[in-house]
Design goal:
2 helices, Transferase(Phosphotransferase), domain 1, 7 strands, three-stranded antiparallel beta sheet
Length: 116
């Protein structure tokens, strides 16, 4: 995963250690995943929101989706990696509300014609 250290869309890893029972990863703080964010921030349905609230919600979702696409493009380009497990629990927000992609446990290297 060292090849992803340069990506702004992957939490920075500061160190790792292990004991007999577990492996620990010390990484950049990401306080919330997308599921929790949507559940806590937008409890009302779109029908119950004012026009301004609904527009803000839609703009937020557009920003989040664009951020996810940019993040996937970035890990493909910089790391040559296919994630294979994109789901809300693996998409975290940093302190500035940008997406950080996590859990590369079942990811694979992308094999290209140039890599032979």
């Amino acid at each position: 995963m060292n090849k992803l250290n340069q990506s702004n869309f992957v939490p920075k890893v500061y160190g790792t250690f292990q004991n007999d029972e577990a492996i620990f990863i010390l990484m950049e703080l990401c306080e919330e995943d997308i599921d929790s964010f949507i559940d806590s921030y937008y409890e009302a349905s779109l029908c119950e929101m004012t026009e301004k609230e609904a527009q803000n919600y839609k703009n937020t979702l557009k920003f989040v989706m664009a951020n996810i696409v940019q993040g996937l493009e970035d890990i493909h380009q910089k790391g040559n990696i296919l994630h294979k497990d994109i789901k809300p629990k693996n998409l975290l927000f940093d302190s500035k509300r940008y997406i950080k992609i996590t859990d590369f446990g079942i990811s694979e290297d992308i094999i290209t014609e140039n890599s032979h």
